[in-house]
């Protein structure tokens, strides 16, 4: 739980700083900050005041990003009991926690269908009741792809979530190109994994190549929209693409 209050993208870089802060009260943490650089201080001050961080702690989500998925789901209703979900870039597991609840993957609601959640990440993910984790594993690696197909009931998912992001270098153009590349690699797997009529939600960072991704999604899904949840920090270029009603899947439908 030590990492659960961090924005997931910062976990690796802040792990050490956080570990030392964990041993102190928030009050002393505030004072401790003053010794830090201006940017670190600013980040930490903002982080400690963040209502989504507080809510994540209160509701025991592993990280504040849970609220982004909760919000998208509230507005667009993409998860319901019985669905099979593939969560790409799942560590530390907050989206998987939300998915397990919404698709009833742990069978907590006896009167509704039981779904399935498979989370994949390069990093280790602590066990979660109702979820299956494949880690450490690279989603875009052909070997992983085969394991994903084997693990999904019926070999397909109804919903593919991707909060995957490369480690940011801070060079906006480069980071943008990399995340678009990652999304496009994921899209290459979609015909073999996504159920016709299915949904894809993927994280991007806005930039010059976004139209390439959008074009492909528009070709392959009946409906594509851009979503920027409230829980996504306004100053970040993060935007999610939500594509619904997947048109076709390799070898399963003729249209
Ligand atoms: C923002 S975090 C995800 C947070 C997660 N949605 C949650 O709520 O707990 C992004 C994750 O994507 C993972 N990632 C990036 N590229 C990946 C790849 N090629 N295969 C698997 N995971 C990847 C990173 O390791 C990182 O843990
Ligand atoms: C994931 O696998 C792809 C394809 O093998 C490779 O190009 C990419 O560099 C790998 N990513 C990481 C973070 O290892
Ligand atoms: C990001 O960095 C961490 C720690 O250095 C590493 O374990 C992880 O694989 C990296 N993620 C990507 C997407 O390259």
UniProtKB/TrEMBL annotation:
Q: Where is the active site?
A: 203
Biological process, per Gene Ontology: mitochondrial large ribosomal subunit assembly
Keyword check for NAD, yes or no: no
Give the signal peptide, or none. Answer: 1-19
Keyword terms: Methyltransferase, Mitochondrion, rRNA processing, S-adenosyl-L-methionine, Signal, Transferase, Transit peptide
Q: Which PANTHER family match?
A: RIBOSOMAL RNA METHYLTRANSFERASE, RRNA METHYLTRANSFERASE 2, MITOCHONDRIAL
Record protein name field: rRNA methyltransferase 2, mitochondrial
What organism does the record attribute this protein to? Hipposideros armiger (Great Himalayan leaf-nosed bat)
Specify the taxonomic lineage: Eukaryota, Metazoa, Chordata, Craniata, Vertebrata
The gene coding this protein = MRM2
